[in-house]
Each structure stands twice: as C-alpha cells, then as structure tokens.
Amino acid sequence: LCGFISQGSVFDSNIGKLFVKKNEKVKGSVMFNGELESIKAIEKTGIVRVPRPIKVLEDLTQAYIVMEFLEMKSMYSAQFAKFGTQLAKLHLHNIELEKTDPSKYVSKFGFHCQTCCGILPQKNEWNPDWISFYTSKLQEQMDRIKVEQDDEEVEELWLKCKDKIPNLFAGITIKPSLIHGDMWSGNAKQLDDGTPVMYDAACFYGHHEYDLGIAGMFGGFSMSFYDSYHEIIPKEPGFEKRHSLYQLFHYLNHWNHFGDGYRHGSISLMEKLYKD
C-alpha cells in the first residue's frame, strides 16, 4: 500500500542506496515501527530475503522508515515455486524451534509490538489460544465497521458467523508460526539473480494458513507457488473453509480502508461460513 498510505524515495548514502518511506498520519511511527520489527523478525530466520531494516525516524509532522534499497522485478514462474518453499519453511521455523532450541520457541499467538495491516493497527497481545486471538482480530474490524457504517445486516450476520468459528478448527492442532501478515503478490518480488524477496510485512505469530488467505484474494501467485508450499505443509481437513475465514479479515480490513466496495465480498464470505 506504499503510494496509497505512504510515499517512498531512494537516496544514495555512504552505506549504499537507501529506500525511505514517509507517512504524515498521526500514528505513522507506530505503523513503521511495526514494519521494522516485522522485517527484523523475518530477517532473523535467514530463510527468505527481505530489505535490510535500518531505522524509524519521526519529527513533528511525519514519520519515516529507512531500509536497504533493492532493485526488484516481478517474479518468474520458477521463482514462484522457490518462494512457496521459502514461505512454508518460514512458517515451520518457530514450530521446529520447540524441539531444536526451546529457549527461542514462541509458544503463544501475537507479537511483541503493534503492527498495522495498511494504516490500521492490529491487536497483537499474546494469547495462548489461536481461535480467541483470531476472533478478536475479526471483532476489531467489525467494531470499526459498526462505528463508521452502523450496518445492522452485517452485524447480525457476523454474530451468527462468529459462533461457527470454533467448528472450523475441529480435529487440528495449531502451533504459532511467524507469518508475514499481508502476503499478497504485490508484497513479493525477485532480485535480478532470481532471489525471491518479501517486504511490507505486518507480522505476528499465528496459524500458518492465515498467510494464504490474502494470497488467494487478488491472484498473482502461480500454482507452482501453492504446490511447492503444500509439498512441505500439506493441507489439513477443513482447509478450504478456514481459507474463507482468513480471507474475511482482509475483506473487512479493505472495507475499512477503501469503503463499501468490499461490503458484498465480506457478506458473501460470512454467509458461506455461517451456512456451511
């Protein structure tokens, strides 16, 4: 959403080219700090390339995030497969730490700081229960819609849908994965040498399937991406219904960002989840 929310510029420096985004929103520094900490968390795994994070700055009127500038271009099909593998390995990284390095294992869902999906902040308070954590994320979006829209039809449908959420997780065990948080195809590119890159992250520790929700909303990822991903993390029973549940967050979030154009899609997903 750089361009809709923030403006970016490239600068030469004594440590190489830097990419600087600026934002004039009141809480721009909160958004950028969440992005910086997200990129740091992904970088620390050593699994997938990200722009090297440097610093967040602010003055009286605006905030800035400074990071490494990378020459990137759209992914080719071969890189989609590689990226699918890398994303799956990223999702398994924390889970594997439970056995290989328990002191570094993150056992709860959430994140150590607030992050933003777009300009809107996400509640990332630590929670041992994924269903409770994710339901609160959806409720936060619905609360915003209620304030801005006062849409009784959607509110009633949400209450019915909300009661069905626990059923979608019957029979599966969920452990916290480090997830990108906004993994649509516009936030993934490749370098000239073919190395996949992800950026504009809004991380938290959550169910790995969550990242695939927005990935399927706008297209852009080839089947080789999904095939490679599921070779490492196979689909579990109920995947398709949960996929709709995870898309619901992003439809509601886009509704809160861009307006009523996402109302119909939000209602359709809630009806599907409620009636199934």
Automatic annotation (TrEMBL):
Give Gene Ontology CC terms.
cytoplasm
| First-level EC class | transferase
Summarize the protein's role: Initiates a process leading to the deglycation of proteins. Phosphorylates low-molecular-mass and protein-bound erythrulosamines and ribulosamines, but not fructosamines or psicosamines, on the third carbon of the sugar moiety. Protein-bound erythrulosamine 3-phosphates and ribulosamine 3-phosphates are unstable and decompose under physiological conditions.
Highest taxon of the lineage? Eukaryota
Keywords, in A-Z order:
ATP-binding, Kinase, Nucleotide-binding, Transferase
InterPro entries, alphabetized: Fructo-/Ketosamine-3-kinase, Kinase-like_dom_sf
The protein here is known as Protein-ribulosamine 3-kinase, chloroplastic
Pfam family of the protein (one): Fructosamin_kin
